[in-house]
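Researcher: Re-running this chain for the archive, since the previous output was lost when a drive failed. Same request as before.
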Amino acid sequence: MTRKTVVNLLKLLLVAGLVTFVFFKIELTDRIITFDATGKQTSVIEGAIVGPWDASVVEFRSPDGAVTAHEIGVPSADGTTVQVSAGFWTVVKNLDLLLFAAGAACYLFSLVFSSIRWWWLLRVNRVECSIVDSIRFTWIGVFFNNVVPGQTGGDVVKALYIMRHAGDSGRVAAVVSVLVDRVLGLASLALLGAVVVLFFLDEFPEVAIGVWSVLAGVSLLGVVAFSKRIRRMIRLDALLKNL
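Model: Regenerated structure tokens:
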């Protein structure tokens, strides 16, 4: 058995292990959870939700067959509240297939668009990488973002793949492209939040200040990164060269 075969088998075993981990994390059973006035969980009843699970009043069939109606999230006279936890098959059964397909298409488009943005950054830095490979590495990063705890694991894996692909001469530029792509993604998200929060300034003034501060910080970084005069004044190019 060659080394390449062993490595491929180890990769398959790793993927199988991660997929198994994800599968066992999926909740399959419907549950009704009760909280007391202090917010402490007091009881959990497993059963089956009858009808839609995201309504204000949910009908729930307990193991003994009795069907009861529960007002979700509204405190009762003694201060207790009820929350519903829908299992995977209940969520699937209540899906609006048209809206789900539209949402999935939008998500797919956003990933392809971000992959092309990253591919453009690689080309600017003279790192040879096809659009297909950039999409493939992006999907690998998304997988690890959803499996590994935290939101940076996917970027690390993506950086490792592009470093191997770029070779010794382009490793630094490849890693920097991942970092810049993350900053651009943060800027896009902050810009979207900045526009939306303008309609809710009375309700969320602290959020507005935070979002616009992040956007201003990212814009300042962009000015520093793209201005040769400012980089020369703060000796940024010399610092990066030494690093």
